[in-house]
Amino acid sequence: MKSVLSGQISLFSYKSRDMSAFRAASLDRVTAIITTAVGLLLIAVAASYFLRPATDNNRWLSALLPSLSIMLFAISVLLKAKSYNITSHNLEVKQMVGATIKIPLDQIISVQSTTQRGAIRTFGIGGFFGYVGRFNGNERWFVTNRNKMVKIETTKSVYVVSPADRESFIQQLKQKASLK
Question: H or E element: which one contains 101?
Fold first, then answer.
């Protein structure tokens, strides 16, 4: 199935012999603090359902808030970038849920490290287990560490990722995409 954006999404993946795998960077300090604070808040909201007796007037609300908290937590964890794989034809962004976003190498125009700060979230998750979604208008972010970001411009979109070994990732991606 085709993504609304330029890449393709597949739920099943295969290992290619001609592939370089890079794990996503661990959370940076600010992201870890946001994740801890929001996680504790969501746990507190979910726990409130069991700690406060529900009356007939607020029974639905008492069940709705913890359910939403658990759902937000699960969605954030499942959308987090797990690894970035460079195959002979694609850059694959693997998410925790098992979905894979494929960016064709022949569409890549430039690859560069970036320390972009002050991004504007258009639609997505901003800091809870990372930064996933659309930022700065049309950029697609799959970032776990803002100190290790790599900006990838393609003919159709801009992607931002954060591999643990940023320099090797940039070098290998440029080599596979035939960039200087």
Answer: strand 100-104
Q: How confident is the model at residue 109 (pLDDT cuts 50, 70, 90)?
A: very high
Which phi and psi angles does 120 have, rounded to 5°? -100, 120
**Predicted local distance difference test score (pLDDT) of residue 2:** 38
CATH number of the domain enclosing 124: 2.30.29.30
Q: Give the domain extent around 155.
A: 1-180
Q: What are the residues whose beta carbons fall under 8 Å from the beta carbon of 33, sequence distance 6 or more?
A: none
Q: What are phi and psi of 179, to 5 degrees?
A: -110, 160
Averaged pLDDT, 153-161 = 91
Work out the burial of residue 18: count CB atoms within 10 Å of its CB; fewer than 13 is exposed, 13-18 middle, 19 or more buried.
Answer: exposed
Summarised one tens digit per residue, pLDDT across range 42-90 is 888 777 777 766 565 666 666 777 788 788 878 877 788 888 999 889 9
Neighbours of 161 (CB within 10 A): 28
CA angle 47, 95, 82 (to 5 degrees): 90
Task: Say how many domains are in the chain.
Answer: 1
Q: Is the dihedral of CA 20, 99, 174, 88 positive or negative?
A: positive
